[in-house]
Amino acid sequence: MVTLTTLIGLAGGTCTTLSLVPQAVKAWRTRSTKDVSIGMFLLIVIGVVLWLIYGALLGDLPLILANIVSLGLAATVLALKLRYG
Question: How far apart are CA 21 and CA 66, in angstroms?
């Protein structure tokens, strides 16, 4: 049975993960990352990796799922920034 705590974690993880979607889509479509901060996305990727490790150590499904998706999105934007500057 899913607890209220898990639902809140999933909802929060979904919101923060989805916040990366507009930037990833825009960077992918336009191939332009001129206004994207490389420092910010580097820190986001590092932070997400650490949260993913933390979630895995705790066995916390909301942390694991949200951070797997967030890592993919943030890493995509970072890779596009490195490629297209």
Answer: 13
Alpha helices (H) along 1-85: 4-18, 21-30, 38-58, 61-84
Contact partners, residue 56, CB within 8 Å, separation at least 6: 64
Separation of alpha carbons 27 and 39, rounded Å:
16
Q: What is the mean pLDDT of the chain?
A: 92
Q: Is the pLDDT of residue 61 over 90?
A: no
**Sequence letter at residue 22:** P
* Cα gap 5→2, rounded to integer Å: 8
Rg over CA atoms, the chain = 14
